[in-house]
Batch of 4 targets.
Target 1
Amino acid sequence: MCLAESGGPGRLPATVRPVTDVVWLGAAELVRLYRGGELSPVEVAQVHLRRLEQLEPVLNAFMAVDAEGALRQADESAGRWRRGEPAGPLDGVPVTVKDLVAMRGWPTRLGSATSDPEAVAHEDAPAVGRLRESGAVILGKTTTPEFGWKGITDGPLFGITRNPWNPAHTPGGSSGGAAASLAAGIGAVAFGTDGGGSLRIPGSYSGLVGFKPSFGRVPDHPQEGLWCTLVAGGPLARSVADAALFLSVIARPDPRDWYALPFDGRDWRIGPGDGVRGLRIGYTDTLGHARVEGEVAAVVRAAAGLLEELGARVEPVGPLIEALRPQFEHHWKAGFAARLRGVAADRHHQLDPGFHALATEGLDVDLATVNVAQSARARLGAQLNAFHERYDLLLTPTMPSVAPLAEVVYHSPGFDRWARFVPFTLPFNLTGQPAASVPVGVSREGLPIGAQVVAARHREDLVLRGARALEAAVDLRHPHPRLLNTLRELGA
């Protein structure tokens, strides 16, 4: 166990990084340097693209790279900064977009060999449109498992995406390419989606802030099927401040999303530093009767103690909900089956075998069974609403363990995907609550450990406060020395 690389909770001195080491500069810091004329968006884009080219053979994190477009966007940004007319708060900041998300002029491969590489999108998804309007420099589209179906990132289309902390391990999924590239210093922030933990899982496994907003906070389009009300788009970032900045940009309104929350114009950068003094926080390492590895539980328990030292009232709350699998397995398979129905039968052999097996089982799920799961979902939401009448925040481990090996077979008799991957994350997709994973430690074997901060629906402000307090209290440097050692071994 290692919190702040000291074996327990503690602080490290702030790292002083030279301005020339631009790959580790966050979005807010880049904008400050652009404004002062100390750095150019073109220089930053060039450095990130060189790093991408250098590390991509090992990480395998990109479905597509738009070097020409990124340099053009960076040049346009540099012109705006010279004139003192930035387009928005991300002008010139290099970002990436997960390849489940439509980006004008590029195919949306969905991680699937059954997708058409020639079928380019004719319009941007809402979040991509907001990024362009803000002047962000889009480096490319990052890998995702087929249709985003699992918590690791691999598939027949592109192979295996690897974790820069240790390439033998997975960065998580389904926003795995986004996490692997960002953790390695490629891009300053990444846009991903989360339908069962797909921002928080790779956040925990890759030492990043993975922030799933409330359902409807970030407009989405197109939307279809059972899954759409589970999915929220959001940031992977190297700091809570950058996650808040990114959310302020992508949460702007878009009329194509009928589910979207009313836009309130909030700047989410205001408030995360307000601390947790006086907040009521429930802590559990079991939640839905989950089984957590001892090292992970100890690190997160120590993080809970840090919040208590900061003035929060932290109480153990034990198991809060029933195990998810009995109620939602059929619901999940039915969603997979909906995807399968859209794939021509003569191309089924090209699908990920695990996805195909579960989707085929889902073809037999009837409407009555889905309705039972929907009723269970409503009960879960009411139960957690009642919890938040008593507590402002819930703190849990994000994952039951550190990242498994990259070659793990996700759907197999010896690997329980429900127990190993989603016991702490999926409940809050079902209820639509905001939740974030924050790095709070590094295991003995040198892999990150994350804690999850959860608030009631529409209370992203409380999640950001709790996440920022943890970040400051643990003071876990990024890039962490263990990560830097690996990257040096890779020649970066």
Target 2
Amino acid sequence: MKKKMITTIALLGFIAGTAAIASGQGATRVAEAIWAHGELYDTVVTPATFTSPPEHSTDTIYSFMISGLAGQRSVADAAPGDPSYNGGRWDVQMVTFTALGIDVHDPDGDGVVNFELMSEEEVLDHEDLDHLIITPANFYFECPMLPRRNR
């Protein structure tokens, strides 16, 4: 029951965050929003959400929006150029830091990660180390990834 409540709260937080970015503006470009394979990507936040997986395949995105620490951007398992990339249709996995994970990722105790996880492999490695708990959100949305713009 507690796990279901945490997932529901996480989902509501994710929806609220996405809605705040996309409200009234249709699609909005967000710079340096998603890590994949050690590279940062921009994204375009759209209002497109799904209550079940879309007909076409989805990729996994790990959301740290209510992880317990600030500063960790989302991490995707695929990116543009990957043969398996599905154009930004995402199956959301909510990630929270365990007490051990908070000690490791925020040793100075300021509430901000001291280093970011930059690939799915790193996320899964840290789950294996009991630093993270990954919970399916049963939430799907469309948000294409784009190469970063030159700054």
Target 3
Amino acid sequence: MNYAVVLAPNFALQALRRSEAALANKPFAIVEGEGRNARVTEASEHAIGVEPGLAVTLAMSRCPGLLIRPRDPNAESEVMRVLLAAAFTLAPRVELTAEGCCTVNLQGADPIQTEKQMHACVAELARAGVGARLGAGANPLLAAYAARCAEPVLLVSNPAAFLAPLPLSFAEPSSVHADVLRGWGIKTLGQLTTLPKTEIGERLGTEGAQLWERAAGETIRVLRLIEPVRTFAADWVYEPPVESLEPLLFRMRRFAERVALELRGAGRVADNLALTLQLEDDTDHHREFRLPEPGANVDGWMRVLQAHLDTVKTEARVTGVRLVATPARPPERQDGLFDTALRDPVAFWENLARLAAIVGDDRVGTPVLLDTWQPDAVALTKPVNAVPAPEDDSIHPPRGLTFRRFRPAWPADVAIVDARPHAVEAVELHGIVRVARGPFHLSSTWWKSGAAWALEIWHVELASGATYQLSRTADGWCVEGVLD
């Protein structure tokens, strides 16, 4: 198995059905031409009695309710990108061979592992709404023949036995040669290759000898390789514009499936997603999503996107969408012997991402103290995959009183006598100050506009004997906590 071919039969039909949700399980046909010259080129399996070549009027009379559609170049281009992305998951050497067909050079790959990847590739394409066949053989021609016969994967290990019963049309003879060979009683590739190649060449010329080589699966060619994608993005336009969530999510999922396949083909995962909605009034709605766990899981992406879109109300209809995935290397880590890992990490990260889509990325995470004198100065960071083992106790244990902070702090009214707190009145606290120590002044970042802060702190002992910490800012007094 040196080569593989990924083939999407009825390519134009599949592309149209994948882009229009209304065509699912409906009889429809693709037509070309106008007026009386309009002819059916492809028909869905639900279009009973409709075959390629029929006039449109005859097709509609045979199948009442038949939907007529022209080809959609944008939908076909998108499905072709999906096929190429799937092909790159097999190997990095890929050729765009024809519409709905690409060839992969598998030389040097492990045969057993490659066969598993082929089945996984076809399954992945099916989930992305593309029915594909995959064939493999010693050369591109044999792989192409195998793909046409695959259900859905076929590996040719014995070329002669595989080729013998195939119809002569597989070798694509010219109409003249087809008539001549039919007169000789030759209907299959095996019947043609039983004749000597030199005699076929003498009677049918150079083209006849080339036909014999195609029938024997001996044609060799060099692949015209293409470069894999470097940016992982999707843009699409809605005509007419949409104003409900269902059609928006349907098309969004289709493009997300393609982007995820391209990431996997490049050996990457998504670290961030960026979504932009173009609106009918020439404005747009933009939002970025930080994925807590980098990955290429479309279901997880869609849950995050839908959780956000459920909260979005726009002033105009949506005319277009752009989805961009920021690539990153797949995360690699080795668990520690005593680490406590998540029982269901996938569900955890997905729920965290959905929560961030609702409340914002800057409001979800694990708080970490910042290296500053500002009380309660924290930053939200990405949660760890596993809880590490607890650190050893400090050699020098803490000394002095323990400060137990109230969250949130209690707003308070403080009476001042001789520039010192005299009495404190709060919702859950009131009393006369017996001892007051302070003030202790803290301030920082005065050089940054909008980020400066300043505190005046007092430790007060009330008549009840309890000791509290008070703080005063420009907004007033509060009880920050108790010392015990």
Target 4
Amino acid sequence: IATGLAIAFLLSPYIGEQMKQRLPASRIIIEYMNQFLLVALIFDSLMLMAGAIWAQDAWGRFWAWDPLETWALICWLSIGLLLHIRVAWKLPDLGYSWFVISIFVLAFATFFGVPFISIAPHQGVV
């Protein structure tokens, strides 16, 4: 949802007036994007914790630094870093939107791309 809002924010200058009237103000779009990114961070945190608990039971270890686990951690760190940069450095809305889209691409590549190129036994969605 945050990615869809980022795309809507980026495309808002290029859409017609009739469609523009249906969209909320840019400030509201950015605020919703921020809130959904916070929800994504919470669910990504829960995913990492649940995966560690499951791995402890399944394999006798909670973390092995295999590619899928490592890239899932990188996704989590990137969301946290983006939220931190947004608050600490007052990242402009345009840059924030592009970073949200890049995190979506990173997460999509992590969960649907890494398992295809990984030789580790942890194959994820494959």
